[in-house]
Every structure is written in structure tokens, then in C-alpha cells.
Amino acid sequence: MTGLYDSFQRPVNYLRISVTDRCNLRCIYCMPEDGVPLMSHDDILSYEEIYTIARAAAGMGIEKVRLTGGEPLVRIGLPVLVEMLAGIPAIDEISLTTNGTLLAEHAAELKAAGLKRINISLDTLKPERFKEITRRGTLEDTLKGITAAQDAGLEPVKLNTVVIAGVNDDEIPDFAARTVNDGWHVRFIELMPFAGKKSAGSGFVPVSDMRQRLEKLGKLEPVLHTTGNGPAKYYRLPGAKGTIGFITPVSEHFCYRCNRLRLTADGKLRPCLMSDREIDLKTALRGGATMTGLKRLIEQAVAAKPRNHHLAEGDIPKWRTFSQIGG
Ligand code: SAM
Ligand code: SF4
């Protein structure tokens, strides 16, 4: 077998890189209103350091990289990093997850630098509600970002929508209508508990519920998406150009096909989103580790991937919020 495999024979070919813990929004399900204590600039990996780690990982079997945050576009010069990563021969796809608010000014440059695909988080189509959910942003900016991404040819643009009971679950049909009328690709995500919160709480809507509501609009035909590396299952409403995806981290975990590692902005490799276990690459890198040394640490992280998370038993990560890991 070539490539990277964990202890459960799962291939690991995907690295999510958080380039910053900073964010210009404060989404109610991700960050406390006052934010979280920020990493110091010295703690955050430089682009050169990220590149070195990506090169080591690519030499072992990582083929796909996703940039995330915090909000990745608040970090200056992101297209420079995209271009550096695009120059690593073994990496065949670079993608980005963003809240879209700053995308209008960067989409074309990102595409030119080698970005292939983009996921934009959007939880509501109502301007007032957008302000309530994000506590900072405007819907208009994110919509402009979506259009800019489409115009730049970053297709398919996928939208990530976290569904929360009593907050935005009444908009499930509105998002579904956009898959029919505007060809949008919308992925509905179950609300996950985050650090500091014991459970997803009363806002949790299982995907089975979302499906029931959508099936009132028409039969959901399964679709094989060729552009996904992740856990979503895709469907199409009759006559729709766009698709509806479901991501079920809570009700139906997809750990059995987990293919990923996560690199935090301060240089820790996390074998699992839902576990606090981390392998420190930054200290090794700054201490002069060789490529071989880095690869050994990456192997350790792969070997430490658990079989599955234990959310159902109330075992949730305590040290970092999703904004500090990258989702
Ligand atoms: N700032 C970027 C964005 O919002 O797309 C990237 C980082 S954000 C942490 C990555 C993804 O995590 C987003 O799609 C967001 O909706 C999702 N996320 C954050 N907190 C979540 C939670 N409690 N449950 C489910 N998804 C969550
Ligand atoms: Fe920021 Fe993304 Fe978290 Fe919202 S979900 S607070 S945009 S990191």
C-alpha cells in the first residue's frame, strides 16, 4: 500500500489548514460574543512554515488541502500562500472555506493563484437575521462574495448552512428553492456542540428532520458528487441544477470514512476535530526539525486518529472552539 493509512486502514489524503484564529464575525454557534483569547502573532505559523509542513505531508500521501480559519481572508496575502501550495506537485487540489464577506475583492486573485474550489458559509437569506446570527456581518457582502466566486470560475461554489431550530430552520425551503432557481449547491449541516457548551442544546435539528421537510417540496434524488472530499451526501430536487447536501456529524457520524488531518494556526496537528489530542509541529519546525523529523510527527498524528468521536457520550473538545480549529 502506498500513501498514508491510519490504524483502521482509512486512507488519509486531506489536510485542513487553519491560517488564522481571527475572524471578522462572531457566529452564535461558533464563537462567544466577546471572541476568544487570540494567539499572538509569533505563535502563528508563517506561510513559509505552512508550506514546509504541506510539502512534508504531500510527500507522504496528502493530495488535497483546504484553507480555513477563523476567517482565512482576514489574513493578509492569502493568494500568496495558495500559489506556494499550488506549486507542490503532489497536491492536486486547493480549496477554501470562508464566510464570504471579504471574498468579492479576492476571488479573482485566488483563482489566478491556483484555488480550485470554495465553500461559503451562509445560514440565512434574511438581512436582519444575518446580523443576529453573525453578530457583525452583512448579508449583502456574503452575497457579493458568492457572485464574485462564481464569476471567477470557482465552480461549484458550495454553501454551508448550519441549521438551528428556532433560528433559521424555517428557511430550509428557501435555500432549497435556490438549488432549483439559481443552481446553488447547498449543504445543510447539523449543529455541533462547541468548546464551552455541553451539547448542541435545544437548537439541534437532526438531518432526518430536515429531509422530511424537504421531501414535501419534491422527491430527493441521490446524486454522486464528483467534487467532494468530505462527508456530505448529495441529492437533487426535480428540475434543479444545484444540489442539496447533508452533513450529519451528530446523528450519523461518518468517522468510518474520515480521510483528514487538521493543522491549527499555531502549528498543532489534530488527528480528530472532536478530540483535544494534538501533535506539536511548530516547536519541532522552529527547533530545526528535518523533513524526516516532520514526517515522523505526521505519522504519529495519523496513527493517533481514533476510530470515531464520542459526541453522543458527551465527549466534546474543550480546549478550542471551531474558529480555533477551522471546522
Ligand atoms: N470562517 C470560515 C467560515 O465560516 O466558513 C471558516 C471557519 S468556520 C469554523 C468553518 C465551518 O465550521 C463553517 O462552515 C461553520 O458554519 C462551521 N461551524 C462552526 N461552528 C459550528 C457548529 N457549532 N456546528 C456546526 N458547524 C459549525
Ligand atoms: Fe467566524 Fe466562520 Fe466561526 Fe462564523 S463560523 S465565527 S465566520 S470562524
Main traits of this protein?
alpha/beta; TIM Barrel; twelve-stranded mixed β-sheet; 27% helix; binds S-adenosylmethionine
SSE layout and pairing:
Elements: E1 14-18, H1 47-58, E2 64-68, H2 78-86, E3 93-98, H3 107-113, E4 117-121, H4 127-134, H5 139-151, E5 157-163, H6 172-181, E6 185-190, H7 207-215, E7 221-223, E8 233-236, E9 244-247, E10 260-263, E11 268-270, E12 279-280, H8 281-286, H9 291-303
Parallel strand pairs: 1-2, 1-10, 2-3, 3-4, 4-5, 5-6, 6-9
Antiparallel strand pairs: 7-8, 8-9, 10-11, 11-12
Helix pairs in contact: 1-2, 1-9, 2-3
This protein binds S-adenosylmethionine and iron/sulfur cluster.
How would you describe the overall organization of this protein?
The protein has helices at 47-58, 78-86, 107-113, 127-134, 139-151, 172-181, 207-215, 281-286, 291-303, and strands spanning 14-18, 64-68, 93-98, 117-121, 157-163, 185-190, 221-223, 233-236, 244-247, 260-263, 268-270, 279-280. It has a domain at 14-157 and 254-324: Aldolase class I (TIM Barrel, Alpha-Beta Barrel). It has nine helices and twelve strands. Iron/sulfur cluster is lined by residues 23, 25-27, 30-31, 69-71, 99, 121, 323.
